[in-house]
Amino acid sequence: MKDQKDNSLTAKNKAGRYHPITILIVDDETLSREAMKDAVEDIEGIIVVGEAATVKEAVDKINQLHPKVLLIDYYLPDGYGTDVARLTGMEHNSIIVSAEGKLAGSMKKNLVPFIAKPVSVQLLESAFKSILKSNRIAQ
């Protein structure tokens, strides 16, 4: 949901106040995590609260940091990005990224936003808007 006052991406809480969207970036490749973080930091109203490189590390950080949205690489050393989403109950608040564009079809069937690497600010913004529009961000 776009905040009309400051033109940033924000979520509206139950009290009607807007707040930033917190995200966790999950990717086993450091350069890829850094590229996603750089792209996300160009979107006003989105705050990166942490990073993880494995399913286990991601689950631990989600339990510690409570991000609203996950930006997850599909292939991780100890499983899949969808495992992280499923294990934490965040299937509907996840954006899957992968260099393999052929995954897009299966992600769409599961109503999970998918972005092919390399990510762009425009594609990320669109995916965040999709999650906000469907009111899937927990308040």
List the main descriptive attributes of the protein structure presented here.
139 residues; alpha/beta; Rossmann fold; five-stranded parallel beta sheet; 5 helices; 9 strands
Overall description:
By secondary structure, this protein is an alpha/beta fold. Helices cover 36% and strands 24% of the residues. It has five helices and nine strands. It is globular, with a radius of gyration of 14 Å.
Give the SSE map:
Blueprint (H helix, E strand, L loop, with lengths): L10 E2 L5 E2 L1 E6 L3 H12 L4 E7 L2 H11 L3 E5 L1 E2 L2 E2 H8 L5 E5 L5 H6 L4 E3 L4 H13 L6
Parallel strand pairs: 3-4, 3-5, 5-8, 8-9
Antiparallel strand pairs: 1-2, 6-7
Helix pairs in contact: 2-3
Helices and strands, in order, run as: EEEHEHEEEHEHEH
Number of domains: 1
Number of helices: 5
Calculate the terminal CA-CA distance, rounded to whole Å.
13 Å
Total beta strand runs: 9
CATH homology-level superfamily: Response regulator
Secondary structure category: alpha/beta
The second-level CATH architecture is 3-Layer(aba) Sandwich
Strand order of the largest sheet: 4-3-5-8-9
User: Could you give a short account of the major beta sheet?
Assistant: 5 strands, parallel
By CATH reckoning, the class would read Alpha Beta
CATH topology: Rossmann fold
Form type: globular
Low-confidence stretches: 1-7
User: Radius of gyration, rounded?
Assistant: 14 Å
Tell me the strand percentage band.
Answer: 15-25%
What is the share of helical residues?
25-40%
